[in-house]
Amino acid sequence: MLQKIGEKQRHAVKEVTLDLSDSMRKIVRTTFPKADRVIDRFHIQKLACDAVQELRVKHRWAAIQQANDEQEEAKLAGESYEPFRYPNGDTRKELLIRSRYLLFKSANKWTERQKQRAAILFSEYPDIKKAYGLCHSLRMIFAKNTIKDAARLSMAKWYNKVEEAGLHSFNVIASTFYEHYDEILNFYNNRASNALAESFNAKIKLFRANLRGVVDKRFFLFRIAKLYAYPIKFLLSLQRVSIVT
Question: Any idea where the domains of the chain sit in the sequence?
């Protein structure tokens, strides 16, 4: 579909934002050969957030197993089982389950209850605290309105922190970032993001799900165009490309 755009127009494109997909990189390299490729910051941050949640879930399964073992021991001893509770009233399982959303947010956005829960969580699970710190540091690198060279230095320092932390998931992420280093740092040229395209793509998926699938594609596209009235953004979203000319 992109090849149908005239060569002169495609060569006029200066910048394209994309995800970490190798196939998407190949598409952009082929169709927009003169454009700078920018790895979208939100895809990068999502990887870091996923690594934190993966660690939390691992501890949650361990807590569930521990609770089951304690319950079985109490049953064999003929005693009533009372799970251990932290000062905020959470059991181990509840602490790890209810900490999910606070790990996505910056500490200055936590409620008082979340601050109390986070203090207990980080005290009990130092590795989660390390992982959250690395994720937050990465978020702050992209949040700062800085120049590319300064960001390069900040990213190098972040790599050192990852190495010192010794967390497997973050080592994998750091290796992935290293492979796309220049394209990640291209974000600081114009701070470009395809967040609007991603958001619109999510709306289309939800709309399709609510309809329980699509039978008439032409009518479906017509309804989308009428509902959202953004034909240009709609076309860009279908191709998952954000363009600056």
Answer: 2-40+193-244, 42-189
